Amino acid sequence: MAVTIGTIAAALADTLVSDSAVTDASGTQANSGATTWYCLRADGTSATSNSFIKVWDATSGSPDSNNPDYVFPVPTGTNIEYVSSDGNALAGGLRYWGTSTRANGSTQAAVSGTLTAKFLLS
To answer: What are the residues facing 66 on neighbouring strands?
Structure first.
């Protein structure tokens, strides 16, 4: 998995997290501690089945046993973008995973194909 974290101009947010292969393996920790995230852009154009990006306010936990705080459907072959001008405050940190399983808190199935994501944080 190739995850990069870079700094951008501080107009809306100051951190860009890019993940070129979002998976259900164990969740990806984008940061630790309080943060606000403003935008999610998910690319499912290389996915071969419907996918979901699930976001959890935490620094640990398993996709198979924890219910996410946010769930974003990414239909096969599409891009989605979620923008919140006020931001979404997280107390514990931004943890996320990708799955082809709609259900929460149960065994998650892997994404079929490739799902990518970018988050803007402050």
So the answer is: none
Query: Tens of pLDDT along 44-54?
Result: 999 888 999 99
Cβ atoms within 10 Å of 42's Cβ, excluding its own? 25
Residue 19: how many other CB atoms lie within 10 Å: 22
According to DSSP, the residues that pair with 63 across neighbouring strands are none
Residue 94: give its domain's CATH number. Answer: 2.60.120
Run of H or E residues at 74? strand 70-74
Rounded distance between C-alpha atoms, residue 86 and residue 79, angstroms: 22
**3-state DSSP assignment of residue 93:** coil
Q: How far apart are CA 5 and CA 121, in angstroms?
A: 10
Which of these, 43, 34, 42, lies nearest to 87 by C-alpha position? 34
CA angle 22, 115, 111 (to 5 degrees): 80
Around Cβ 14, how many Cβ atoms within 10 Å?
13
Does the predicted model carry a pTM greater than 0.85?
no
Tally of domains within the chain: 1
